[in-house]
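ok so I'm stuck.
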Amino acid sequence: MKDYYKINEISKLYGIGTDSLRYYEKVGVLKPRRDKNDYRLYSLKDIYKLNVIRDLRQLGFSMQQIKEYLDCQSIDNTLQLLLKEQDVIHAQMKKLRITEQILRQRIRTLTKSAQTPDSCFTVKSFPDRPCLQLNTHITRDEEMDFAVKKLHRKHEHRIHDFGNQSIGAYVSAEDLKKGILGVFHSVFFILEEKTKEYDFILPTGDYLSYTYRGGYHQSPDRILELLAYAKETGRQILDEPFELYLIDNRDTVLTEEFLTEIQVRVSKDSPK
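replied:
not stuck anymore, here's the structure
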């Protein structure tokens, strides 16, 4: 066995590029000697260090950490290094588990929404739903997107999973009666968790619901249909109607795939 090896030999032996070997020398991890022709010569000690570098790099250690370790190598330092990296890995695993939960929830929600029948009226019962709200005048889709982003920016410390966030917008029934169509006066997020910090509550009760697919130009007609159906079935409307965007431009650029649900709180029972 030779005592010294040239850079190309080390490169082939370890599958490490010569640029990487020169970098290791630059940061002071390796210190090859030079022959009379100024060629780098790597000793058996350098080869031992390369084994350590390779193992620690596979565990995710930075070159600075590896250098500090090699400079003061001992059992205590080895244990401290490994325990510290173990903590980092545990934190990464926790983050990955949270990300996986978000993805699973989004898959479930999107799959359910994609299979939701449209163009039918139903009555749904809900408990109190706390919401965050931004009051603003909205007449165009671009204004709606901007308002949603503004509301999210205000509460992004609380809304970590924006992809699964329930987003809604209020329309004025009075505007609709006056023939003022396509105007919304607020956007809101429905909070999944119970909280004491909210802007308003969608109160517990029965909500008449109607879902439609396609572009938002349908919105005024669909809301009027919902209000007309409530009147026909003898249900008293208790609040302003609102839309919930179950499938929107967070999920698809195909407007025909959009799914919007209109809800309005109604009296518990229709009059006899």
